[in-house]
Amino acid sequence: MSDSQDQPVTTKDLPLRPAAPTTINEPHQADHLPETPDDKPDSAPNSPILQSPEELPIEFDQAKKKKKKSKARPKSKRGKNKPTGFEEYYVDAPITPEDFNNEKELYNVSRPLIHRIEDALLRYQKNRRIESDRRDVFMKYLSYGGVNVGQKMFGGLADRDLQELDSEQILQARTMTSVGKDRSNLAVDFDAVVRGFLTSFFPYYFNPETEDMIKLATVTIRNFLSYLLYHDVCLEYNENIDQARTSCDIAAKELWYNQQLMAKSPGDFNSCCSLLFGGELHDTYTEDNNWKSPKDDAPHLTTEIARKIVKFALAGTGENRHALRFQELAEKNTLCAVRIEDIDGFEVTAVHPPGEAVMEFYQTHAPDLVPVGKLLARAYRDPGMPDFDLSPEERVVQLPERNFEFFMEGNLLQYCYPGMKVITPVWELNCGFHYFEDAYRTYGSNYTPLLNDLMLGWKEPRDLTKAESEGEDDSSVTL
């Protein structure tokens, strides 16, 4: 073995990679092995002399560069909290003189109206963050008004192609709305389209279940109309557009009342009349029907309860002539009701909630019942429904206007207003008052049925029996 005073081994003599471990069986093999820390107890265990170059610590003269932290955006500009442009007090920012001159040329009255509408739609959608629910309503409103909605054929562009276009060309390439040349000869009426969409089409296509859904539709359409006014897109129709905004405000209030009345009608009094005198409940009622849903807390309606509700309504709210006539016919057992034909429902003319005297009467004698008020109405025919098949002689005859007097609970009268149309069966009792059953549909005071909803999805017809080109067999045409 070598002497312990041998020269120390330097890093130059060390192999680049540590040798594989071998078993020392012969004495002469130990002469070529470097001394280990165990052989020199006074040597440091982590001495750099005894470590391979791969294990040597590397010291950098320069400290690592710290990454710059990006400044966090405020919550008002992130995700769902980012401004959309449809907030209650949102207004468009003032435009620069350059933008004003551009818009003055862009929306000049000398340009065709359809081109001005197309340009306004491009810029409006660019400046608003229209979320999915709002976009569904807005696009359906545009389609209802005659605007073509959908991606243009072969209109998709890659990002590489978009880099070669300016901002105006990018807007044109990404647009999903256009007005066809065949629509240029149609009458322009912003107010009629708004009334037709909100009062006739929207409630039964989207079936709004909350007041927020109704506000979403009315606010979106009103916001677009305000944009047209602010940027002078259609100067010749400014008065008509302003009237359309008023129609949006009316619909925002009335649509929710309509939905509430349709869901909660006809009320206790009218249900009792249907049960006792004639109607849907009268035809399906059985006295020994004691079945009750475990999820329904309402008491089971019986003929005894129905008589009590009707009698207290006549005594508290009805006129003396109605009460006396009712008592006289009831004693003779000749009370009967007849359904009024040739009408679709009624239109409300006046609402009389229960007064203080009626409230006190119910509180004293029938605290378990809901006080009843009056609803005055007239016969109504839905113009959106087909006309009756009448002969020419019958069409000449003018039918007299029929007026109705209904009794209704105060918690339902709060949803009624003059001008409301209710599509429902109406019955007349032979003692002089009327009642109605479930409301099938309810319309607002500015109800306007249009033919626009029939044109949704309409395409120009073409003859499929002819060949598309000369020499092509007709059998190649498929249906």
Automatic annotation (TrEMBL):
It comes from the Eukaryota. Residues 1-10 have a biased composition (Polar residues). Residues 1-85 are annotated as: Disordered. This is Argonaute siRNA chaperone complex subunit Arb1. Residues 28-42 have a biased composition (Basic and acidic residues). Residues 64-81 have a biased composition (Basic residues). GO terms for biological process: regulatory ncRNA-mediated gene silencing. GO terms for cellular component: ARC complex.
